[in-house]
Automatic annotation (TrEMBL):
The keyword Transmembrane applies. Signal peptide: none annotated. Its main location: membrane. It is a multi-pass membrane protein. It comes from Flectobacillus rivi. Belongs to the autoinducer-2 exporter (AI-2E) (TC 2.A.86) family. This is AI-2E family transporter. Keywords: Cell membrane, Membrane, Transmembrane, Transmembrane helix, Transport.
C-alpha cells in the first residue's frame, strides 16, 4: 500500500496531483456518458422512496420501477402541456406583441437620433449590415443548435433506461462494493451508502422546495407589476435555479422584454429587474442556506469553487451536478480516516468573533 511506503512529502504530493489530473482528464474525455450516468443516479435516488414503498406493498420490483417511471413521465407531460398552452397564448397575441415591438423600435430610433445624433439612415444601414452578417452565420448557428439539441434529446431518452437498471440492480451494486472493499467493511459501506442517499435526497427535496418558494415570489412580484403571463415567467425563472447564481437572472430577461414592449413606461422593466434581484437576494442569503445548505453541509467557498470547476469541466450540466457531487465527495472523505481532513475542509466552518474584531476559525 502507498500509505505504508515511506515517501518524501513532495513525492506524495506529486503522485496525488498526477492522480487528480488523470481523473479530471478522463472526466472531461468521457463527459457525455458520465453526465448521463450522473443524472440517472440522481433520478434513481429521487424515485427510490416511491419504489421502495411500492415494493413494501408487495409490488414486484420490476413493476414498481415501471410505475415510478410512468408517474415521472406523467408529471413531465403535464409540465410540457402547461408550457405548450402558454406558447399557444403567446402565438395568439403575437400580432399585438409585434406591433408594440415596432412602436418601441421606432421610439428607440427617434431617441438615438435626437440624443445621440445618429441619423435614421445610418441606423437602418447598420441594422441591414448586422442582419446580413447574421444571415451568413445563421447556417452554422442553426446546424450547431440542431446538433446540440438532438444530442441532448438522444441522451435524455436514455435516462429512463439507466434509471430502471440502477433501481433494479441496487442490491447487486451494493454486493459489488462488499467484494471490492472486503466484507469486513460491510457496516461501514452500508453507513456510507445510507449517508450518501440521505444527503442527495435531502438536497433534491430541498432544491424542489426552494424552486416552489421562488416561483411563488417571482409570480407575486410580476403580478403586482401587472406583467402578462406572470405565472409562466415566474415559474420558468424559478426552474432556472438549477443553474446556480446566474439562472434566475437569465429567467428575468423575457419578462423584462415583455414589460418594455407591452407597457408604456420603461420603469416597468426596471421594476421587473428589481423584483428578480430582490428574490435572488432572498434566495441566496436566506431561502437556500436554510433549506438546502443545512442539509448538504458544504461551506460556501467550497460550493463556489465546485460550481466554477463543474462549469468549466461539463458546462451547464456541471453547474447542476456540482453541489450534489461535492456533497457525496464529503461523505466519502468523512468516512475514510486518511481523507477526513479533506472532508473537514469542505464542511461548514465555525466562525468565532473574538476581542479586537478579529475573526478566528
Amino acid at each position: 500500500m502507498l500509505s505504508e511506503i515511506k515517501l518524501p512529502p513532495s513525492i506524495k504530493l506529486l503522485i496525488g496531483l498526477l492522480t487528480v489530473s488523470i481523473i479530471v482528464w478522463w472526466m472531461y474525455l468521457l463527459q457525455e456518458i458520465l453526465i448521463l450516468v450522473s443524472f440517472s443516479v440522481l433520478f434513481s435516488m429521487l424515485l427510490y422512496p416511491l419504489c421502495h414503498r411500492l415494493e413494501k406493498w408487495h409490488f414486484p420490483r420490476t413493476l414498481a420501477i415501471f410505475v415510478c417511471l410512468l408517474v415521472t413521465l406523467a408529471i413531465m407531460a403535464g409540465v410540457i402541456s402547461l408550457i405548450a398552452l402558454q406558447i399557444a397564448d403567446f402565438s395568439d397575441t403575437f400580432p399585438t406583441f409585434l406591433k408594440k415591438g415596432e412602436t418601441f423600435i421606432n421610439e428607440l430610433q427617434s431617441w438615438a437620433s435626437h440624443n445621440l445624433h445618429i441619423s435614421r439612415k445610418k441606423q437602418v444601414t447598420e441594422l441591414r449590415n448586422q442582419s446580413l452578417t447574421l444571415l451568413k452565420n445563421s447556417g452554422n448557428i442553426i446546424t450547431n443548435a440542431l446538433g446540440t439539441t438532438l444530442n441532448s434529446l438522444s441522451s435524455a431518452m436514455l435516462i429512463p433506461i439507466f434509471v430502471f437498471f440502477f433501481l433494479l440492480y441496487r442490491d447487486f451494486f451494493r454486493r459489488f462494493f462488499y467484494l471490492a472493499f472486503g466484507r469486513g467493511n460491510r457496516k461501514k459501506i452500508d453507513l456510507v451508502c445510507t449517508r450518501i442517499y440521505t444527503v442527495v435526497q435531502s438536497y433534491l427535496l430541498g432544491l424542489f422546495t426552494v424552486i416552489l418558494i421562488v416561483a411563488a415570489l417571482n409570480t407575486l412580484g410580476l403580478w403586482l407589476l401587472d406583467i402578462e403571463y406572470a405565472i409562466f415567467f415566474g415559474t420558468l425563472a424559478a426552474f432556472l435555479l438549477l443553474i446556480p447564481y446566474i439562472g434566475i437572472m437569465i429567467g428575468s430577461i423575457l419578462p423584462m422584454l415583455m414589460a418594455l414592449i407591452t407597457k408604456d413606461s420603461p420603469m416597468y422593466a426596471v421594476g421587473v429587474a428589481g423584483v428578480f434581484l430582490f428574490v435572488q437576494f432572498l434566495e441566496g442569503n436566506f431561502i437556500t442556506p436554510h433549506i438546502v445548505g443545512s442539509k448538504v453541509s458544504i461551506n460556501p467557498l467550497a460550493a463556489m469553487i465546485a460550481l466554477i470547476l463543474g462549469g468549466q469541466l461539463w458546462g451547464i450540466s456541471g453547474l447542476v451536478l456540482a453541489l450534489p457531487f461535492i456533497a457525496i465527495l464529503k461523505v466519502v472523505f468523512d468516512n475514510i480516516d486518511s481523507l477526513k481532513h479533506y472532508g473537514y475542509l469542505l464542511g461548514e466552518a465555525e466562525i468565532h468573533h473574538k476581542g479586537g474584531g478579529r475573526i478566528l476559525g
